[in-house]
Amino acid sequence: MQTSPSNDLEALVDIQRYQDWILKPYSPYLRGSVLEVGAGIGSLSMHYAHSVERAVLVEPEGKRVAVLRERVAHLRSAEVVEASIESWLGANGADGADGAQHETFDAILMINVLEHIRDDAMTLRRLYERLRPGGAFLCFVPACPWLYGTLDRLVHHYRRYERKGLEALLREVGFDIATLNYFDIAGILPWWFAGRVLRQTAFNAQAAMIYDRFIVPLMSKVEQLMPPPIGKNLTCVAVRPMSETARS
């Protein structure tokens, strides 16, 4: 079974083990008021939104927003905003939608989103301002620029990140780095083969579910014991210092 670009999130909604693996290092920080950027159809939101005081879920695509609203309708903590993060934050310092300019959060969750934003540095600076002192920016991005292929183009990635480059970008904004690790070393080969060798132009949902069932349970345990020297993604927890003088 293969899917079109517009349906890839819906087709991959059942990779629960992979989603749990992504969110595990972030779980201590998902508390209080949380902003999730690019919430999609709520595949990740459903893992944590019930346990926080407030979850603001920002998603720009109307069809996904409709599904997202339905999925979180029973959660009093969840608020869905149909907007791009740029428009929600407000252009050129002006107030964004729903008074976003004045609201701050305990955590900002950004999973597989930053690579879709042309001016990632500007967006990070504005998100930094939306974090309360001591708040955490929880970021998950594709790694290894040499892996960039047809699957990246399919989902409109502007880039894949190098570890040193992402760290430098976050520190320049003002963040302290709590953790920054490679993630999913086993995923490198299938992503490279699909996107660089076969040059696939659709996601294979069946292959993703097989990977989720058989590979993720093993590799999540291995990588917890031994962080890999390289991986298909980077997972990061960056913290806004309690004071400006606390910056490193």
UniProtKB/TrEMBL annotation:
Record keywords: Methyltransferase, Transferase
GO molecular function: methyltransferase activity
Keyword Secreted tagged: no
SUPFAM superfamilies registered for this protein in UniProt: S-adenosyl-L-methionine-dependent methyltransferases (SSF53335)
Range of residues in the leader sequence: none
Any coiled-coil regions, as ranges: none
Gene3D superfamilies: Vaccinia Virus protein VP39
Database matches in InterPro entries: SAM-dependent_MTases_sf
GO BP term, example: methylation
Matches recorded under Pfam families: Methyltransf_23 (PF13489)
Name of protein: Class I SAM-dependent methyltransferase
Taxonomic source organism: Pendulispora albinea
